[in-house]
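#lab-general

N.A. 3:47 PM
ok so I finally got the sequence cleaned up, no stray characters, all 133 residues accounted for. can someone with queue access submit it? mine expired

B.Y. 3:52 PM
send it over

N.A. 3:53 PM
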Amino acid sequence: MPLHFTTPFDRDHEEEQASSPPVPTGKRRCAMAADICFIMIKAGAFLTSTYLMTLGLPLLFFLAISGWHMDLLFLQLGNLAARFQGAEPARQIGFLRDVTFILIGMATLIGIWRMPRFLSEVSRSQTARSQKS
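B.Y. 4:20 PM
back already:
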């Protein structure tokens, strides 16, 4: 039984390496640093917008149950705040734990829902960049 396996993917990679001209290491490092910076900026924008969407969903929920009236929204929020403040510390901690769990779950679901578009944007821009070179 051989210890070295060659897959079709390995062969494709070898063909790409053979067909591409050698790139100087300084240029390659600069291009790699630029790619990393680009991906980090895109990932930061992705995470920021995901968390803003997550924080906007409870507001949307409270607006929906108040019938889209701002005075009723603030009345509900005031009621929730008064009940939270009047509760004993153990119940406050439990409520905060539940809210934290729900918000993290919503952020995760929104991130999973948006991830394919994020990956396609990053790969599309990387493909366009490599075609220009």
